[in-house]
Amino acid sequence: MLQNAEDNVSCLAKMHLKRFYFLLLLMLLTWPVFAQVDSVKIAGMMRTNNIPGLGVAFIDNGHVVEEKVFGELRNGVPAPADAVFNVASITKTITTMVTLQLVGSGQWDLDAPVARYWTDPEVKDDPRSKRLTTRHILTHRSGFPNWRRMVPDKKLAFQFEPGDHFQYSGEGMEYLRRALEGKFHRSLQQLADSLIFRPLGMTSSSLVWNEAFTNRFAVPHNDRGEALAINKNSVPSAADLFKTTTGDYCKFLVWVMNGAGLSDSLYHQMTSPLAKIKAGKYMGLGWANYPDLPGGQYGLSHSGVDPGVQTLAVLLPKMKRALIIFTNSDNGWMLYNELAKDYLGGQGAAIGDIEMKN
């Protein structure tokens, strides 16, 4: 069973993460000069917070400025530079870009009912299933809960009319996967491989478990630093369990920053605020959107949280600037503020005050 990206996060962690995302976007905007990260300091923070492994990368002007991996894959095993991380819900960015590639090539319609290719048996008698579109799903307005296992009867059902309002849903993304696979008769892994991974040279990226990752996989750890089981999924998920390296995901983000081969119109839709999440934060097509940043900038982001995993990607398309943070720990979020200060010049106090008022 897929691990929900929200299931195992404490209320405190959620509060800090929500404050952090916008803070980090503002830091990215005001970062003046890149400074080398203090490896000794990072190692100390990782020990203090029981965080075994960390992958961090910074992109500026469309180029990778820094890419490092710290710590261990598991107890006593140093993490190599090409360590493979489960990035949890950041998986959704891959599914989004696969879908938009198909839309851009005229093979998929954002606004056509997905019922043409897939209808879940549990909602087949609900007329709303005939009105559900890809645009509803990518903006998290499908009407579905995050996961059906989280509702009392464990069955999938619409909780509101598709398109009515934002509600984060892994079920929606999985519904889209089934529809894509239904039309193209190829797995999401095969689609991603042909449209993204191979063209971009992402040789260490997969939506399913690959035994070749075994000796460089960052094993998940709980908040006490104890190793957890690895989910070696054989069926691709559209919402979770994407395995990749910081280097591979940098290639992906640079591609996204450069337009991903999409038309101006489609790229604008992807990066526009289409569904309100909260004040200052919206959902575009598959990416969280911050439309009103200083200097006329806007930001995109996606986070990932699974048991033993905390990850974050933030990008500023106009400036072609991005920060990637991958960790194999429930405590990974505890590094975010300090990493932002070290990498971005450190304006946490002033920007933190702004975020507290957001």
What name does the CATH topology carry?
Beta-lactamase
CATH superfamily: DD-peptidase/beta-lactamase superfamily
State the share of residues found in helices, binned by percent: 25-40%
- What's the architecture in CATH terms? 3-Layer(aba) Sandwich
Assembly annotation: single chain
| Secondary-structure class | alpha+beta
Largest sheet: 9 strands, antiparallel
Q: Ends: how far apart? A: 36 Å
- Strand tally is 11
Give the count of helical stretches. 10
DSSP strand (E) fraction? Answer: 15-25%
What is the spatial order of strands in the main beta sheet? 3-2-1-11-10-9-8-7-6
- CATH class reads Alpha Beta
Domain count: the total is 1
Radius of gyration (CA) equals 19 Å
Low-confidence stretches: 1-9, 344-358
Rounded average pLDDT: 87
**Looking at the structure, what is the overall shape?**
globular
Characteristics:
single chain, alpha+beta, 358 residues, Beta-lactamase, two-stranded antiparallel sheet, disordered C terminus, 9-stranded antiparallel β-sheet, 10 helices
Care to describe what's here?
The chain has ten helices and eleven strands. With 358 residues, the chain is α+β, with helices and mostly antiparallel strands. The strands form two sheets. Strands 3-2-1-11-10-9-8-7-6 form a nine-stranded antiparallel sheet, with helices on both faces. The protein has a two-stranded antiparallel sheet with strand order 4-5. A hairpin with a 4-residue loop joins strand 10 and strand 11. The longest helix has 20 residues, at 11-30. Residues 1-9 and 344-358 have low confidence and may be disordered.
